[in-house]
Amino acid sequence: MASIPTLPGLESTWVSTPRLNMHTLTSGPESGIPVLFVHGNASSATFWQETMLALPPYYRAIAPDLRGYGDTEDKIVDASRGYFDWVDDLLGLLDSLNIGQFHVAGHSLGGGVVYSLIVAAADRVQSASLFAPASPYGFGGSKGWDGTPCYPDFAGSGGGIVNPEFARLIGEGYRGREFQASPRTVMNAFYWKPPFVPTREEALLSGILSQKIGSDKYPGDSVPSVNWPGAAPGRFGPANAISPKYVRDTVKRFLAVEPKPPILWVHGSDDQIVADGSLFDLGTLGAAGIVPGWPGAEVFPPQPMVAQTRAVLEGYQNFAEQVIPETGHSPQIERPDLVNPLFHAHLQAAEQRT
Which own/partner pairs from 216-219 qualify as long-range (CB within 8 Å, at least 24 positions apart)? Predict the structure, then answer.
């Protein structure tokens, strides 16, 4: 039985794939048009439940817990592959379900997975939707619209920059509000724009607490660096897998891919996690004096995450951007009245082109 309750209309199952046993939420008819949903970091498939149920009735929604999250079999993420451990898992899942072509939607880290999924299987992706996606150049340690590394060893990204207290409290299953780094406090301060609180707050908190914790999981390992802030990416876990050290070379492959599935990019106007001045980015925190020893804006400025995404998608060309006002990092949860019509129209337009 799944560890997090599901809403009526959703089914919780485990699918045995060639790579691992994946916990998966599904809705809609088995013969429906497949839509794959990819969740973000410190999250799980439960974050997609309302979005799945809102789909038109002729779609089949499929939302797995990624490797390292939720109820899926606990296996290590090889960060040196960037997003491709997850990509191979997802393609293995779809193959096990006898699904050929599909639509895909990714949130946050899941948006980063989508870039690499398009690289691996562009001919199978009918459309892609990115909700507050990670920069194509990864999280932390880069500058400029072209994702130039701040340092050759990519210090300032990876497992060494994760707040250890946040990871510890996840590992302990802490559900309180006492600490600034408590998962509930972080969720309600940053996952959406206060004072919004989702109806399923407890289930979504359980999704965060489902993340696998450890030195080879989350936050992962790191290596000492002579560069600020003294730590460079290690080899294991999600935080290292999204370092520019391991993902930035995928950008060229993404831009060169053919065919180019149409992309919808939706992000909130007040996102504080994926932003040009993200409050989770060391460049922002260093400039504010929160992390001491900052080497200055020329060496390590705040990462322009949104500008990087826009520059890459403009090079890709086949995309549309929508900014949702008064919204934080989860527009599909905060403003489904605005986001779902955009999402559904995007799916239907792709169907008409094929």
Answer: 216/76, 217/68, 217/76, 217/77, 218/41, 218/42, 218/68, 218/159, 218/162, 218/167, 218/170, 219/159, 219/160, 219/162, 219/164, 219/167
- Distance, CA of 77 to CA of 68 (rounded, Å): 7
Average pLDDT, the chain: 97
Residue 354's pLDDT is: 63
**Global pTM value:** 0.98
Average pLDDT over residues 315-332: 98
Cα separation, 60 vs 101, in Å, equals 12
320-334 b/e (C-beta count within 10 Å ≥ 16 → b)? eeeebeebbbbbbbb
pLDDT digits (tens, 9 = 90+) for 44-95: 999 999 999 999 999 999 999 999 999 999 999 999 999 999 999 999 999 9
Distances (CA, A) of 339 to 36, 216, 227, 322, 347: 17, 36, 41, 9, 12
pLDDT given for residue 1 in this prediction: 64
Q: pLDDT-based confidence at 2, cuts 50/70/90?
A: confident
Contacts with 242 (C-beta within 8 Å, 6 or more apart), sequence order: 41, 82, 83, 109, 112, 134, 138, 139, 157
Distance CA 218, CA 240 (A): 9
| Tokens encoding 148 | 């130039």
353 pLDDT band, cuts 50/70/90, is: confident
Percent of the chain whose predicted confidence (pLDDT) is above 70? 99
Domain ranges of the chain: 11-148+245-353
Q: State the sign of the Cα–Cα–Cα–Cα dihedral 110, 115, 121, 127.
A: positive
Task: Determine the Cα–Cα distance for residues 298 and 304; give it in Å rounded to an integer.
Answer: 13
By CB atoms closer than 10 A (0-12, 13-18, 19+), residue 243 is buried
Q: Which CATH class is domain 11-148+245-353?
A: alpha beta
